[in-house]
Automatic annotation (TrEMBL):
PANTHER family: CYSTEINE DESULFURASE (PTHR11601:SF34), CYSTEINE DESULFURYLASE FAMILY MEMBER (PTHR11601). GO terms for molecular function: transaminase activity. Belongs to the class-V pyridoxal-phosphate-dependent aminotransferase family. NifS/IscS subfamily. It comes from the Bacteria. Residues 5-366 form the Aminotransferase class V domain. PROSITE patterns: AA_TRANSFER_CLASS_5. The keyword Disulfide bond does not apply. Keywords: Aminotransferase, Iron, Iron-sulfur, Metal-binding, Pyridoxal phosphate, Transferase. It catalyses: (sulfur carrier)-H + L-cysteine = (sulfur carrier)-SH + L-alanine. The keyword Lipoprotein does not apply. This is cysteine desulfurase.
């Protein structure tokens, strides 16, 4: 039996061997397992030093000051802290929030909750490639706009929003600017200082770090004020309480360093993998929802007219793929992202997301394409 070919890197990535090895050193009695908040002994100081080194490694990756990194359990918590924390701490800015209809559920569900608290949410509609233009954003901004929250790379399509254009637009507007960068950190060059972004969400397991750990970048100059949503000890400068998971943070730091070192090579590799995969498919047999020219090459979403995605995936037992976001993988409904792009229901139900990463070989990508084409030919 052939080993499973993993094509679901957008859902999660495997931790790199160096990440896993370094994490193990911070778990057991003969390692540095102490609580980094324990300031009364050497073991605690060493753990704190490891945490701060990780903070510096992540800050360097996104062009931030290490004091602007607030640890969280992942991008979902970071998104909640950014939106709810900013709304509660800045009532004078207004009660209007702008986002898009195809954001991750961690943003959409949080906005829906804020809507019940009396906030007005504007959901911008993307174009056919999943892009929100700066002109759309400009038209939606008002004097009451408190926050703009738009993702960088869409997790189902790979579309890349024009954040440079947003930066120019928002530079002269008092609204806070949040980017959900879970799919982008470690893959695209990001400089939060140059962009002038106020808040940016990060998830380690999207760039070969461990699950269950992430961060929120919070700008210090001028300062962005957030109200904590988790209380109990005042950790992370009062923005996020809880004992820090030293081993996970160390893993995140190593992953951030490796991402910075390998970013260009990683991008070239996933682009080559996508090309090898698509070269095996009959171009007349699928419809691409992703922008194959301008989008992130590590994610491609394809519709196969006349064949339900669930049926096709059953015919591909050796491939790990998905019909969209892992958060909605158990749903029998079509992807809400595709639905909001205007993709017909039947075509949306025939669509699969293939995502490529560092440890996929070109030979595996080619074999995956061959298996998909063989299954399609058989089913048709």
């Amino acid at each position: 039996m052939n080993p499973l070919i993993y094509l679901d890197y957008a859902a999660t990535t495997p931790a790199s061997p160096e990440v896993a090895q370094e994490m193990a050193r911070y778990l057991t009695l003969d390692g540095c397992f102490a609580n980094p908040a324990s300031r009364s002994h050497m073991a605690g100081w060493m753990a704190e030093q490891a945490v701060e080194q990780a903070r510096q490694q992540l800050a360097r990756l996104i062009g931030a000051d290490l004091r602007e990194i607030v640890w969280t359990s992942g991008a979902t918590e970071a998104n909640n802290l950014a939106l709810i924390g900013a709304a509660r701490a800045n009532p004078e800015r207004g009660r209007h929030i702008i986002t898009s209809s195809i954001e991750h559920k961690a943003v959409l569900d949080t906005c829906a909750w804020l809507e019940k608290q009396g906030y007005r949410i504007t959901y911008l509609q993307p174009n056919a490639q999943g892009i929100i233009s700066a002109e759309q954003l400009a038209a939606a901004l008002t004097d009451e706009t408190l926050l703009v929250s738009l993702m960088l790379i869409n997790n189902e399509l790979g579309s890349i929003n024009p954040i440079e254009d947003y930066a120019l637009l928002l530079r002269d507007h008092p609204a806070l600017w949040h980017i959900d960068a879970a799919q982008a950190v470690g893959k695209l060059e990001i400089d939060v200082q140059r962009l002038g972004v106020d808040l940016l969400s990060i998830s380690a397991h999207k760039f070969y770090g461990p699950k269950g750990i992430g961060a929120l970048y919070v700008r210090r100059d001028p300062p962005v004020h957030l109200e904590a949503i988790i209380h109990g000890g005042g950790h992370e400068r009062g923005m996020r309480s809880g004992t820090l998971a030293t081993h996970q943070l160390v893993g995140l730091g190593v992953a951030a360093r490796q991402a910075q070192e390998q970013m260009q090579a990683d991008r070239a590799h996933v682009q080559a993998c996508r090309q090898a995969f698509l070269a095996e498919l009959d171009p007349q047999g699928y419809q691409a929802h992703s922008d194959l020219e301008q989008g992130w090459p590590g994610i491609v979403n394809l519709g196969f007219p006349g064949i339900e995605a669930e049926t096709l995936m059953l015919a591909l037992p050796d491939l790990a793929v998905s019909t969209g976001s892992a958060c909605n993988s158990a749903s029998i409904d079509p992807s809400y992202v595709l639905a909001r792009l205007g993709v017909p229901r039947a075509l949306a139900l025939s669509s699969i997301r293939f995502s490529f990463g560092r440890y996929l070989t070109l030979e595996q990508a080619q074999q995956a394409g061959q298996q998909v084409q063989k299954a399609l030919s058989s089913l048709r």
